[in-house]
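Fig. S4 source data, part A: sequence.
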Amino acid sequence: MPITEFLERNARLYPSEISLVEINPANQPERHITWREYNLIESSEGDKYRREMTWRDFDIRANRFANLLCTRGIKKGDKVAILLMNCLEWLPIYFGILKAGALAVPMNYRYAAEEIKYCAELADVSMLVFGPEFVERVNSVKDSLNITDYFFVGKDEEMPEYADSYAKMAYFCSSVVPPVEISDEDDAAIYFSSGTTGFPKAILHKHASLVHSCRAEQAHHGQTRDDVFLCIPPLYHTGAKMHWFGSLLSASRAVILRGVKPEWVMQAVSEEKATIVWLLVPWAQDILDEIDRGEIKLEDYRLSQWRLMHIGAQPVPPSLIKRWKSIFPNHDYDTNYGLSESIGPGCVHLGMENIHKVGAIGKAGYGWQTKIVGSDGSEVERGQVGELCVKGPGVMTCYYKNEKATAEVLRDGWLLTGDMAQEDEEGFIYLVDRKKDVIITGGENLYPVEIENFIRKHDAVKDVAVIGLPHERLGEIAAAIVEVKPECSLTEAELNAFCEGMPRYKRPRKIIFADVPRNPTGKIEKPRLREIYCGKSLVAQQNEIV
């Protein structure tokens, strides 16, 4: 069945229960505004601290937008792009596109104008829904795009003349489900790879993939209607949305928080009675740092209902979780591994019962299979390093319009992840590094994640990234870009002395004190670092990968 049926079921069974809440901490609390009130007030009044909608309202909004798309000529299989910051409108727009039989094409809100153009052309986008933050970027490329309609989500005075108001146009459309037949084998969405390899690829998924991610997420974290999920990461990415799919399946409330400041996170957990929070490594570190400095006092917040903190999207330093559990001993912890090509998180799953294995990404998730293979494609022995492969109902259909790239990563139903990993004697999988990030120095393979995890143990280190720098004799040497905590000091000599705890060949040969750039999903932007410190352009790096 298509994923839209879960929304329709929730609207039918729990019409008056709250489905989504949006919190915008940048605006001071003025008054509580329900979604129904928001529909009736001027758009200039809609930018408030808190908004909410029921399951029935959610479904009505999705139906209205679906019918609007149909009146504009959108047919089954057409592509509609979403370029929005996280907001209450995001998910009803997404589901409206699916209900119209079209494919939703979420775009990274950090894309520059040329990247918007590139992705729109790559995915054959014929319609774009965008917000005020993107007007200037869209203006600069719209004349070169093959897009027939633009819908604007925001205040009328900020809307460009070539766009129509999403709220006003959809409000007058039918709230009945449009007569479009959708099956689980129909194409549902195109996501873009995170861009950590240079240029995004368009990843095609069916409704069946989305449905499986719902079932896997609930199987892993046991969401019930009593849970409240605090959603902070960007909804354009598979990670945040697929974790929210657990709320969709269990008909439980979710809170969309527009901001990542530690005090905002804690306030939202407290005020909205959140039970599940998904964080990225830097956000968890920032919360712990503010607690240590006394800037956050736990007694100021209602936290007893918070049952689960989980992290994904990147390797998780065991020292971080040890520190977290020392402050929040009653929290369950979990980590999920996944790729956009495997419909986000969950193809490998640690499990809340396996906190003694922190550092591992886990075992095959619900409905998934895993194997680790060598360069010849055969499985390696336990304990040896190889490339992690996954197989299951959430594997992408293909890289859209890219048969060559698809053939390189899809083999007999198995997805080659590009991540180097090893399995311990109990079957738990540990990430070693990205295949493309392995540093070969004097014939030895160095795995940056191992070095990064060691350096992060230093009390003064906030973040670290290790890359290879060209070297005339050794080919490459390991360089550590180290971001020091604001309240701390650290010298190169002190860090080199600390690194003596590693084997000599693994120690970084160069230390650079600088900020570590991460993308919105928390992944270190190593192509950007290589461009800065190695002089390699993103184009050159992409050619090396291809």
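Fig. S4 source data, part B ends here. DSSP finds 17 helices and 28 strands in the chain.
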